[in-house]
Amino acid sequence: MEATASRIAAERYFEISVEGDRTQLVDGVLVMDEPRLIHGALEAEIVGALRDWVRAGAGRGLVALPTGVVMDDYNVFAPDVLWIAERHRPKDRGMRLRRVPDLCVEIRSRAPGATTSGRRSVSTRRAACPSCGWSTTSPSRCTCFAASTLPLDELFRF
After folding, report:
1. pTM more than 0.85
2. So what's the pLDDT on residue 128?
3. 6 forms bridges with which residues in the sheet?
4. What average pLDDT values come out for the chain (158 residues) when binned by 10 residues?
């Protein structure tokens, strides 16, 4: 993996990044993120619930783990969990997403340097949720919460 000393474009980001490397491009800067155990456990619970719902009926779209979503020439975000409605489901699953999925779940971390804080700085320049930074047609429709505020003992036990 190449370190980025200067701003890079999304096209270059895809040339140097490796699928699954837990990086994102935020305002042209490569941001690496290695979540903690609680983050992964929450992600698994949410993916499992959505996967069960998708499988329970026809035409319920596609659920996925982090994948790069091209926001613009200098921003490629990877939501922790994403769901794409059937009507927006790409015919080619090998393609890059060039639109915000119908549902993006971003599990926020209060750890220093969390990538969501980088996204929040990007959000000041576009119509985006002020909490997580995701571009949306209506930022007020975005529902964000910090993982540390959840009653984790009620959700699952280690």
Report:
1. no
2. 57
3. none
4. 72 88 90 83 91 95 90 90 91 83 80 47 47 53 51 47
- Strand, coil or helix: 23: strand
What's the full length of the chain, in residues?
158
Distance CA 156, CA 60 (A): 26
Tokens of 123: 């959000």
Q: Which residues, in sequence order, are CB contacts of 99 under 8 Å at separation 6+?
A: 69, 88
| Residue 126 confidence (pLDDT) | 44
3-state class of 32 per DSSP? strand
Structure-block tokens of residue 104: 């993006």
**CATH code for 10-155?**
3.90.1570.10
Residue reference for tokens 């200098």: 74
Which residues does residue 84 pair with via DSSP β-bridges, in sequence order?
Answer: 62
Residue-wise burial string across 113-152, b where 16 or more C-beta atoms lie within 10 A, e elsewhere: ebbbbbbbebbeeeebbebbbbbbeebeebebeebeeeee
pLDDT confidence of residue 115: 44
The token duo for 136 is 């949306």
**Domain boundaries along the sequence of the chain:** 10-155
